[in-house]
Amino acid sequence: MSAPLHERIRAGIEARILSGALPPGARLPTEAGLMAEHRCSRMTVNKALSALAAAGLIERRKRAGSFVARPRVHAMMLDIPDLESEIAARGGGYGFRLLARAARKARTAEERALAGDGRVLAIEGVHLADGRPIAFERRAISLAAVPAAEGADLAAVSPGKWLLEHVPWTEAETRLSAVPLDPATARHLALDPGHACLLVERRTWRGSDGVTAVAQTFDGATYDLTARFGPKTR
């Protein structure tokens, strides 16, 4: 049995947003245009757009139309470029070594906070600069929010870059801390246990749905983090 028309309209627009065909800030077709395209009533189109707005994927502006939502962060803007772009900007050669990936039920408290009782794609990998390990990454992606991640080639492109290119997020939270290196992570980074490291933890959401939670451990002696802070913008 096919889904109601308003659900099919919603799913079609959401797919275009997730694929990047409709990037953040892009204007959606008008209600009249959607009515003509799908040969339906304004109420049906309104239901589809209201569901997208409730999920945080679009913004509806009176007399202006509907637009793909732009990312926003809690309280302050924190601009942290993806590692590949950052290393390239410094003149280095970037690489990513995928160590493990598994699609499974959420197990840890952090995974359940992200995906509830649903499934996650659990990933471990090492980021490289000129062939040298600089960061160990442990990531979980909610497969309810990002089903395409299960089939993505994350050995060819790092999970973070794939998500930036394919999945719009509406909220993000970043936590920074200094930590001593644990023995398991030390092996991946070719360092001694107890070595001073920078831990960067990020979580992103699309509306009320968790997208990903990632912890990246950097060698504190060779990596510094530069970020720009400013007032929150709309």
Oligomer: single chain
Task: Kindly report the average pLDDT value.
Answer: 86
What is the overall shape? elongated
Measured as a percent range, the helix fraction is: 25-40%
Helix and strand content put the structural class at: alpha+beta
Q: Spans with pLDDT under 50 lasting ≥5 residues?
A: 73-80, 229-234
Distance between the termini: 41 Å
CATH domain class of the largest domain: Alpha Beta
Order of strands across the widest beta sheet?
A: 3-8-9-10-7-6-5
The total number of structural domains is 2
Number of helices: 7
Measured by DSSP, the beta-strand proportion falls in 35-45%
The CATH architecture of the largest domain:
3-Layer(aba) Sandwich
CATH fold description of the largest domain: Chorismate lyase
Number of strands: 11
Radius of gyration: 20 Å
CATH superfamily of the largest domain: Chorismate lyase-like
In sequence order, what are the helices and strands, one letter per element? HHHEEEEHEHEEHEHEEE
Largest sheet: 7 strands, mixed
SSE inventory with pairings:
Elements (H helix, E strand, L loop, with lengths): L4 H15 L11 H8 L3 H13 L3 E4 L3 E4 L3 E2 L2 E3 L4 H7 L4 E12 L3 H7 L3 E11 L2 E11 L16 H8 L4 E10 L2 H7 L6 E11 L2 E11 L9 E3 L3
Parallel strand pairs: 3-8
Antiparallel strand pairs: 1-2, 4-11, 5-6, 6-7, 7-10, 8-9, 9-10
Describe the structure in your own words.
By secondary structure, the chain is α+β, with helices and mostly antiparallel strands. 28% of the residues lie in helices and 35% in strands. It has 2 domains: 5-70, Arc Repressor Mutant, subunit A; 74-231, Chorismate lyase. The strands form 3 sheets. It has a 7-stranded mixed sheet. The chain has a two-stranded antiparallel sheet with strand order 1-2. The radius of gyration is 20 Å and the shape is elongated.
